[in-house]
Amino acid sequence: MAPSAYEPAPRPLPLPASEPEYDDNGVDLTLLRWMASLTPTERLRVLQANVVALQKLRDGRLRS
Question: Which partner from 3, 9, 26, 49 sits 20 to 30 angstroms from 38, CA to CA?
Fold first, then answer.
């Protein structure tokens, strides 16, 4: 059975205090670590949820 597009994405785990949150270029390392901790299936679910959210935003803009 395919996952619902409205299924919530897995939540990021808290990082140890010793890990930096951003690199010297301002890249959010917490998001990179979180995505790397997910399984391929979980990554696809997150991507699908983002696609659905962007479609809703676009559709709302086009209707206005």
Answer: 26
Could you tell me the pTM of the whole model? 0.57
Closest Cα to residue 13, out of 39, 40, 31? 31
Predicted confidence band of residue 1 (pLDDT cuts 50, 70, 90):
very low
Domain layout of the chain by residue ranges: 30-63
Closest C-alpha among 34, 39, 29 to residue 11: 34
> Taking residues 5-29, what's their average pLDDT?
74
Q: How far is CA 32 from the centre of its chain?
A: 10
